[in-house]
Amino acid sequence: xxxxxxxxxxxxxxxxxxxxxxxxxxxxxxxxxxxxxxxxxxxxxxxxxxxxxxxxxxxxxxxxxxxxxxxxxxxxxxxxxxxxxxxxxxxxxxxxxxxxxxxxxxxxxxxxxxxxxxxxxxxxxxxxxxxxxxxxxxxxxxxxxxxxxxxxxxxxxxxxxxxxxxxxxxxxxxxxxxxxxxxxxxxxxxxxxxxxxxxxxxxxxxxxxxxxxxxxx
Length: 217
Fold this sequence. Notes:
Shape: globular
Helix content: 25-40%
Number of helices: 8
Strand content: 15-25%
Low-confidence stretches: 211-217
Distance between the termini: 37 Å
Radius of gyration: 17 Å
C-alpha cells in the first residue's frame, strides 16, 4: 500500500472534484464509478472511496478487492462477464448496481430469495459503427459483450428477467471504447438508449454510460 507523491494525489483529487462539479451542473442524481482495473493501487482506491466515488468492478477478484479497501457493497457497480455466482448474488442482495452481461447470470437470478425484491441492470451490445461511425475504431464496430437490441436478444433477455417476479430491471449499461472521447459519442449513445427505452417500454432508474459515469434518472 504505497502512496504516490502528494502532488499526484492532489491532482487526482482535484480532477474528481471538478468532475463532480460538472455532473452537479447537469444531473441532480449521479454517482461516479471508478474502474478498478484501470488503476488498482490501494492508496488510490482509499482516496476515491473517501471522495464518495463508487467502485466499478468487472470480476469476482475485483469485487473482493473493493470490499478489502473499504467500499460498501451498495457502493459497487458490478459489470463484465467474469462474475462468479457467489459474488453476483451477494452484490444484488446488498444493493450494488449489478449489470447482467451473460445468459448464465439471468439463470442465477432464480437462486435469490423469493421473499425479497431486487433490482438489476443489463448490458446492451453496442455496434458503435452504426450508432456513431465517426467515433468507432476501424474493424471494431461489433462488441463481444452484452445483448443485441437489433436481433431481439436484448428483448428476450429482458423478458426472462421479468419472469422473476421479485426482480426489477432497473438500468441499462452501455459501454464501448471509442476512437474519440468527444461529446458526440456520448450524445449518440444516449440517443440510442432512449430509442431502446421507448421501443421496449422500459421504466428505468439509471443509465450506466460509456465512461462509467453513472446517471440516476
